[in-house]
Design brief:
Layout: H1 2-26, H2 40-47, H3 56-74, H4 79-95, H5 106-109, H6 111-130, H7 136-158, H8 175-195, H9 200-211, H10 213-231, H11 236-256
């Protein structure tokens, strides 16, 4: 299963690199090749997912998560292993902010904090299946996660941390970044469950976005590169609808081929 999953992750990634590199070479006035490897060394690193292309980290993370998921599934009945792994991961994630040098090994260790999100997602799916009508649990969980974020943020600021910007705590994600991201996700999920009408149309839209999120991830690099190169700048407020429409259109075309 892991091998099949790895192939399904790697093939689109390699196709994206080839396609983006070709566009950059063929249409240099429209594409700057942002985020793709441009030297022999970077190409080799991109192929083996240990550097090079900016998008390679997600591919490696998904492969790591596939392995973690398989091991977690195999050992799910052994509570000691499950809880030992969970406690170890939580402790390591808590200590990441104290060791900024860990950023040099981001790709090698990012599965540690991200596996917390995997476990939380598995718990949420299981809970939602059993108690789908209880929406408040997501609101309360989001509030707790946001309190954790505020506590860590305040502590780092009090300690005089080099940076408290979320982007500087993303690679690999530490407790500051994870608690913020998790709280926002839970709040949005709560709002969706409470206010968004669940019908055939909305279900189809959500299902499409979920099934094709991997394709959307690569396509958005192409669109951003094109927009930045042709306009010279990027106004998120003005360009966001255009970017979203272009990404969605390209993705619909790719998935229909």
């Amino acid at each position: 299963w892991v091998k099949k999953r790895a192939v399904r992750l790697l093939v689109p990634y390699y196709l994206y690199l080839f396609f983006h590199y070709s566009l950059w070479k063929l249409f240099p006035l429209n594409f700057s090749g942002i985020g793709i490897p441009k030297t022999g060394e970077d190409i080799i690193k991109s192929i083996f997912l240990n550097g090079g292309a900016d998008s390679g980290w997600l591919v490696l993370l998904f492969i790591q998560m596939a392995v973690i998921f398989e091991l977690y599934t195999i050992t799910r009945q052994v509570k000691f292993i499950k809880y030992f792994y969970l406690i170890t991961v939580i402790l390591l994630t808590l200590f990441f902010p104290l060791f900024p040098q860990i950023k040099e090994y981001s790709r090698q260790v990012m599965f540690i904090p991200w596996s917390l999100i995997l476990i939380a997602s598995m718990w949420a799916a299981k809970y939602d299946f059993k108690h789908g009508n209880n929406k408040s649990i997501y609101l309360y969980s989001g509030i707790i996660s946001f309190i954790v974020f505020l506590s860590v943020f305040s502590w780092l600021r009090f300690q005089g941390a080099d940076s408290i910007r979320l982007i500087d705590h993303k690679y690999p994600p530490d407790i500051l970044n994870l608690s913020y991201g998790l709280s926002m996700s839970l709040f949005l999920f709560y709002l969706w469950k409470k206010f968004l009408p669940v019908n055939k149309k909305t279900s189809e839209i959500i299902l499409y976005l979920s099934q094709n999120s991997y394709t959307l991830f690569f396509v958005h690099f192409l669109v951003l590169d094109f927009m930045l190169k042709t306009t010279g700048s990027l106004n998120i407020v003005v360009n966001a609808p255009v970017i979203f429409a272009m990404v969605l259109t390209l993705s619909l075309f790719i998935t229909s081929v």
